[in-house]
Design goal:
single chain, alpha+beta, Phosphorylase Kinase, domain 1, Immunoglobulin-like, 4 domains, six-stranded antiparallel beta sheet, 14 helices, about 30% strand, elongated
């Protein structure tokens, strides 16, 4: 028998914790509200007043399991200690109520409200299962709801490691009473609550695995949606087990009356299969199904409704709380989706047609024009300078840009012309109506202007030969020294022979005197210069002169025919 409950400890301490008040007491112990001295936050203290070894070990095991289960979905455990004959667990205070009390007060819950609570419990079990912990007692009484709509899984008193088959004898005894709502199990209870237990849990508690928790979770969701359990009318485990054996499958017909979505109904059906191998083997597919369903709802609104409902009933109100419906977001119909898709495709085609100037191509009123610019291959224009062609319609003195025809140079070729390599740049195809236009070409810091008239006889290609446009007079000058051997000093000496040197330029296929052709030399080409002087070896130079290089000056030494190298 349990010991007599201690006198009121309000204002006193248990261990280092200051007790504020007693919350509840039962056949196995007492639950207090207290204050954590370091954290300064309210907590609860569970005191076990039964001193049987098996019960004490189970109580300690719950503490050890919970202290290793730090998750936002599981009740936090801060401490476990023994003071005299009494044992204590210190846990966070979830200011609200249990899911069991919520169902008792309110009855069945709307599907979206039930499923968002259910999803939080799934996350708690996923965390526990990742630690190889089987809860073995999933039921509404062990789900706590805070006033802030937090959902916490509690009471791991009969939980165990999935790989641990050494279950104490007390865990396999038949239950004569249900677990109380304090999170402290009654003496001589089985491993679980009969109304929620998987079939295999009745016959061999040591063999249960994750699928037993999944089964209990399915039964709990059924109760949340209908307000009643599919089994559990009997007053003992044996009666409940007999009722369970009378049905091949869990009777889920009540879900039809609640108009539960088919995918949720089928999920519950798979979760509650009699044979464990036919159930979901992990919690993950269940989380995916519920998450997909809840995407249609504003989850913040759902949590707000849960928070208001918990506050309503936790305050002691007996009136029924009217849940404001949270409607699903409108789903786009197939035809609307197809229409949007077709519209997007047509829009893309229209944008592409405009970009590629398709409508101009088929127009009988427009003529195609391409702009070609010829440049020296080694010109500064051949670098990556910005080059853009603008077209303006001329109407008297007024000019209006045709922005749709603005173009860059999209391709280029290299060929031979004017005695050297020439690079040609080509614009996009331009379509213009009959009329007078001005073309402006910008290439870096340079600017080309040209007027033109478009009609049916106009050429398709507008040529701009920038080689001839940019040629400038070329001035060639030089300084020449003769290198002679001085026998007196036995070394070379240098003499300015610039005026005595004959200067030639290779012009029009032959060598000509520089003085005869100097006024005809231009930039933008390749030039060969030959220097000749009596008694000296000839010197020949080749120079590629760009269009902007207007002066060429040559410095050179010419050696005597009989000169000796000085050492």
């Amino acid at each position: 028998m349990a010991e007599k409950i201690k006198e009121n400890l309000a204002g006193k301490t248990i261990g280092k914790y200051l007790v504020k008040k007693e919350i509840a007491h039962g056949g196995m112990g007492v639950v207090y509200e207290a204050v954590h001295p370091e954290l300064g936050k309210p907590i609860i203290i569970k005191e076990l007043t039964i001193h049987k070894k098996e019960i004490a070990e189970r109580f300690k095991r719950e503490a050890l399991i919970l202290m290793d289960m730090q998750s936002q979905y599981i009740v936090n455990t801060y401490d476990y200690f023994q003071d005299g004959k009494s044992r204590y667990i210190v846990e966070e205070l979830v200011d609200g109520m249990s899911l069991n009390n919520l169902i008792l007060h309110h009855g069945k819950l709307p599907c979206n409200i039930a499923l968002i609570i259910f999803l939080n419990v799934c996350h708690a079990l996923k965390f526990a299962h990742s630690k190889n912990i089987i809860h073995r007692d999933i039921k509404p009484a062990n789900i706590l709801l805070s006033k802030r709509a937090e959902v916490k899984l509690a009471d791991f008193g009969i939980a165990g490691n999935e790989k641990d088959k050494n279950i104490s004898a007390i865990d396999s005894m038949a239950a004569t009473k249900k677990f109380d709502d304090l999170g402290l199990t009654q003496a001589k209870s089985s491993m679980g609550t009969p109304a929620y237990m998987a079939p295999e849990q009745f016959t061999d508690s040591s063999s249960v695995d994750k699928t037993a928790d999944i089964y209990s979770l399915g039964i709990m969701l059924f109760e949340m949606l209908t307000g009643k359990r599919p089994f559990g009318g009997g007053s003992s485990m044996q009666e409940t087990y007999s009722e369970r054996l009378a049905h091949k499958h869990v009777p889920l017909g009540a879900l039809y009356n609640e108009k539960i979505p088919w995918r949720i109904y089928w999920m519950i059906r798979v979760m509650t299969m009699s044979k464990r191998e036919k159930r979901y083997q992990s919690i993950d597919p269940i989380i995916r199904i519920v998450t997909r369903y809840l995407k249609s709802y504003n989850q913040k609104e759902l949590l707000t409704q849960i928070s208001r409902m918990v506050r309503h009933y936790a305050a002691g109100n007996v009136t029924h709380y009217e849940i404001r419906p949270v409607l699903a977001r409108r789903k786009t119909s197939l035809w609307v989706s197809l229409s949007i898709s077709v519209l997007m495709i047509l829009s893309w085609l229209f944008v592409t047609a405009v970009k590629e100037r398709f409508f101009y191509r088929i127009s009988p009123f427009h003529k195609k024009v391409t702009v070609t610019v010829s440049l020296p291959y080694n010109s500064v224009y051949s670098s990556d300078l910005s080059a853009i062609v603008y077209f303006y319609r001329l109407d008297g003195e007024k000019e209006t840009e045709i922005k749709a025809m603005r173009s860059g140079f999209v391709s280029e070729t290299t060929e031979k012309a004017y005695g050297h390599s020439v690079k040609k740049l080509f614009s996009n195809n331009i379509w213009l109506r009959k009329g007078k236009y001005r073309v402006k070409i910008t290439m870096g810091q340079y600017y080309i202007l040209a007027n033109m008239f478009i009609d049916s006889t106009s050429k398709d290609d507008l040529m701009f030969d920038y080689i001839t446009m940019q040629k400038r007079p070329l001035k060639i000058s030089m300084t020449v020294r003769g290198v002679e051997f001085d026998k007196n000093t036995n070394s070379n000496r240098y003499v300015d022979i610039t005026d005595n040197v004959k200067k030639y330029v290779f012009y029009q296929g032959r060598w000509q005197l520089l003085s005869d052709v100097s006024n005809r030399l231009t930039t933008g080409g390749e030039w060969k210069i030959k220097l000749s002087a009596t008694g000296y070896k000839d010197e020949i130079f080749t120079a590629n002169v760009d269009w902007f290089q207007t002066e060429l000056h040559i410095y050179t030494d010419m050696q005597c025919d009989d000169i000796k190298e000085s050492r």
